[in-house]
Amino acid sequence: VGEKADFHVKEAYKIIRTNLMFTLASVQNNIILVSSAESAAGKSLTCANLAISMAQTGKKVVLIDADMRKSVQHRIFGLTNKDGLSTILSGTSELETVVTTYQKMTLDILTAGPTPPNPVELLSSQRMSDLLNKLQKQYDYVFVDTPPVSILSDGLVLASKVGGTILVARQNQTTYDN
User: Fold this and answer.
1) What is the rounded CA–CA span in Å between residue 37 and residue 128?
2) Which of 7, 84, 98, 164 gives the lowest tally of CB atoms within 10 Å of its CB?
């Protein structure tokens, strides 16, 4: 949703943003999980653009890269990935020292950090629940980018902790059985 993005692309994200705002207004949970059924469907880019779009309204937003096996948010935003979610959950760093504000916006990014040997265990831990509870109170919206749900269970362990889930499907690639 950068300045160079096509008008129709920007408008599509604004429509999704508006729908999210209305949908989440009726629940007490401002955490949005973004996933896909398969890899390369565009879930990470969609998550990034939705977080930017929401921050452009002046809302305080944090984006968490919870795809600790194939993290890309640090590349999308041009950040380092030395420390992040994995180091917070393993107790080797603190949120305040790891989160990065994006271009003086009301958008903060929490990268995935180095790939741990046990991502699903970290995501299902009490530390992750505590982190989400803390962020839910600090931010108007929390976006969580997770691995594809049909490949890994990482996103599924977080599903009960979120207010809504966006499942990204790639046109002419994602299929379903009738």
Assistant:
1) 23
2) 7
Q: Render 46-60 in DSSP notation, one character per residue.
A: HHHHHHHHHHTTT--
Distance CA 153, CA 157 (A): 6
Entry pTM = 0.86
Of 62, 64, 67, the residue nearest 52 (C-alpha): 62
- CA triple 102-104-91, angle to 5 deg: 45
| Sheet architecture: strand order including 61-65 | 100-101, 107-110, 61-65, 141-145, 31-36, 164-168
pLDDT in tens, 55-99: 999 999 999 999 999 999 999 999 999 999 999 999 999 999 999
- For residue 170, pLDDT beyond 80: no
Inter-CA distances, 173 with 37, 41, 42, 148, Å: 10, 8, 11, 14
| 3-state SS, residue 132 | helix
CA distances from 74 to 10, 18, 63 (A): 22, 26, 11
Place of tokens 């505590």: 130
Residue 121 contacts residue 127 (beta carbons within 8 Å): no
